[in-house]
Write a structure and sequence with these properties.
This protein is an alpha+beta fold. The chain has five helices and four strands, in the order αααβαββαβ. It folds into two domains: about 45 residues, no CATH class; about 80 residues, ACT domain (Alpha-Beta Plaits, 2-Layer Sandwich), CATH 3.30.70.260. Belongs to the UPF0735 family.
């Protein structure tokens, strides 16, 4: 029996077909008020109205101010003194709020940490925050697990 329920994924824009990127550009243009009419916005980015309507309800920005903004990330951290503390300070400095922390005991000098972060008052983009976290000493990787 086939399951007709939608499945949702978080996907890097680097691997998406260009049409999805253009649909997001149209949504941004309309949301910012650069264009008032869908027809003008789709012409600006080079897609048809039918393409826009086909995909507009199927793709969303990871950071959308009109939605609740809780993101759960998984970090792989080297077992280095102060690494998690620096990350938490960095998150707070950018007006994000850590809601939950789950840290496993380090194995092979690597600790897995999951953080749920409320980002509605963030003073920069999600991508900039993630880049800042990933550039910290001791951070091996950051992966987005979910967004609510």
């Amino acid at each position: 029996m086939e399951d007709n329920k939608d499945k949702y994924y978080i996907v890097s824009s680097n691997v998406l077909p260009e049409v999805f990127i253009k649909v997001m550009e149209v949504k941004k243009i309309l949301g910012e008020g650069t264009c008032d009419k869908i027809n003008d916005a789709v012409k600006m980015v080079g897609i048809s109205r039918s393409t826009y309507y086909k995909y507009k309800d199927s793709i969303f920005d990871l950071y959308d101010e009109r939605r609740d903004n809780i993101i759960t990330v998984m970090l792989m951290l080297e077992h280095v003194k102060g690494t998690l503390s620096r990350i938490l300070d960095l998150i707070a400095k950018h007006n994000a709020n850590v809601l939950t922390i789950n840290q496993n005991i380090p194995q092979n000098n690597i600790a897995m940490v999951s953080l749920s972060i409320e980002v509605s008052n963030l003073d920069e983009s999600i991508e900039e925050l993630f880049d800042s976290i990933q550039s910290q000493l001791g951070v091996k990787s950051l992966r987005v697990l979910s967004k609510f």
